[in-house]
Amino acid sequence: MLKILGRTDSINVRKVLWLCDELNLNYEREDWGRGFHSPQLPEFINLNPNATIPVLIDQDFVLWQSNSIIRYLANQYHGRILYSQHPQQRALIDQWIDWQGIELNNSWTYAVMHLVRHSPLHQDQALVEKSIQTWTKTMEILDAQLAKTQAFVTGLEFTLADIPIGLSVQRWMLTPFEHPHLEHVQNYYNLLSQRQAYLRWGNNGQN
Q1: Which residues belong to CATH 1.20.1050.10 in the chain?
Q2: Total-model pTM
Q3: Residue-wise pLDDT tens digits, 54-97
Q4: Cα–Cα distance list, 173 to 125, 138, 157 (Å)
Q5: CATH code for the part of the protein at 2-76
Q6: What are phi and psi of 57, to 5 degrees?
Q7: What kind of fold does domain 87-199 have according to CATH?
């Protein structure tokens, strides 16, 4: 039985839970993180020295970093339909997963901390506007890619890349500021919302 450590309102934990649903994997989950068990406790630090969620435990194998976890699960548990074995197709999937983790994720940080988390450390309005502008530019890159595929991020089929990016689109939709209209991102959001696992872990009102 897989064990997942992390709270369900974490976007990174939801990546893992969404994939588990897509692959029909059974798991146990424990609440760790803000409002629950502290990741600073020694027993958690022993599993993940970064004190971040999620952590995956698969028997005696321990793994942290959400994108590494979803890659592992797809490789280990018959997820080839989502994570192609063809080197070039897999490289494209990895490219967009890494783009989400680096470019897209970093673009929204200050804006989300101010507009959603109401962090007292993120009250510089100029930095909020800069974050929104950068976030918008990255979303325009995604919109242009979706205009090419007319479906999912890497093509006509749903892949592993759509999990982190699909959750990111949900965050874009829910963060309260004036959004430009991105037609292909909206169509993508509607397409993902036809998947039961996305309705459970993505389009579920959580930011």
Answers
A1: 87-199
A2: 0.95
A3: 999 999 999 999 999 999 999 999 999 999 999 999 999 999 99
A4: 21, 14, 23
A5: 3.40.30.10
A6: -120, 120
A7: Glutathione S-transferase Yfyf (Class Pi); Chain A, domain 2 (1.20.1050)
